[in-house]
Amino acid sequence: MKRGRFAPSPTGPLHFGSLVAALGSYLNIRAHHGEWLVRMEDLDPPREEPGAADQILRVLDALGLEWDGDVVYQSQRVDLYRDAISELTARGLTYYCTCSRQDISRSGLPGIEGVRYPGTCRTAGHRNRDASTRLVTDDQPVGFTDLLQGELTQQLQSDVGDFVILRRDGLMAYQIAVVVDDADQGITEIVRGSDLLDSTPRQIYLQRLLELPTPAYLHLPVANDARGNKLSKQTGAPAIDIRRGSQVIFEALDFLGQQPPMELSGAKPAELLEWASQHWRTNRIPPVKAIPLGE
User: Fold this and answer.
1) What is the DSSP string of the chain?
2) Which of 53, 172, 185, 282 has a CA 20 to 30 Å removed from the CA of 102?
3) Hey, what domains does the chain have and what are their CATH numbers?
4) Which residues of 6-26 are buried (b: 16+ CB within 10 A; e: fewer)?
């Protein structure tokens, strides 16, 4: 059975951009009669907003986006991530890094996300645990075919550098947690925003090292505001108003190119979702990384 998931970070209320990701993942799995899970990626307490996780769940429920099974919270699964890091460490694939962001920026080495890590501590032999833990990478191509965005290949050492899997403050990094969770939960289809497209080769690299399956990936266009910024709490994206539930689902379907008929514009959320599950077509989604709202 196919299994998908929506994995928000509880840094604020659900907004239109995150609804697009939720709706896309929900419809893609329901169209194949699979299971849809919800996972809270609550591994970064300094960035989280009290009550945000519950608010996100209430909005999903009010919009009729029903999930299967219990909601999983990453903060309760840290031992799984530590086990994975221990396995990588035992194979000599990790090392401690004491470099600050300023140290890294001074290297000036270009990467896909700005300045890449130059590998300063790879052979330093640090034993001080007051440091981040990095994963050793190489330049063997890591590629995949996204079901919407097409082919993407990276050479991790040249494009990213050795990346952090355990932060200096003891918090788990996104890359290791998401890989462990997707495998543990049996996720077969990952539908999410294109802002995470460049992270995917790192996750596939980890999957291969840990001998975990690689799901199918589909990266949706993200919603940008008038200034070209991705909708987020930081850019002031307004929270979803559940009183406009039907309208906002209709707008999200339109954003995803699904062409909902106008006669459904006043339908209840459940009716819209039923229609959308039966008529979901990934080939209608615009194969772009971002779409400004209003276009």
Assistant:
1) --EEEE----SS--BHHHHHHHHHHHHHHHTTT-EEEEEE----GGG--TTHHHHHHHHHHHTT-PPSSPPEEGGG-HHHHHHHHHHHHHTT-EEEE---HHHHHHH--EETTEEPP--TTTTT----SSSEEEE----S-EEEEETTTEEEEE-HHHHT-SEEEE-TTSPBPHHHHHHHHHHHTT--EEEEEGGGGGGHHHHHHHHHHTT-PPPEEEEEPEEE-TTSPBPSTTTTPPBP-GGGHHHHHHHHHHHTT----GGGTTS-HHHHHHHHHHH--GGGS--SSEEETT-
2) 172
3) 3-77+184-292 (3.40.50.620), 91-174 (3.40.50.620)
4) bbbbbbbbbbbbbbbbbbbbb
User: Which tens digit of pLDDT belongs to each residue from 69-117?
Assistant: 999 999 999 999 999 999 999 999 999 999 988 989 888 799 998 899 9
The closest of 289, 46, 48 to 148, measured between CA atoms, is: 289
Beta strands 72-73 and 35-40: pairing type?
parallel
> Kindly report the CA angle at 214 between 209 and 217, in degrees rounded to 5?
135
Q: Closest Cα to residue 23, out of 286, 220, 290? A: 220
Look up the pTM and report it: 0.95
Q: Which tokens sit at 144?
A: 């995949």
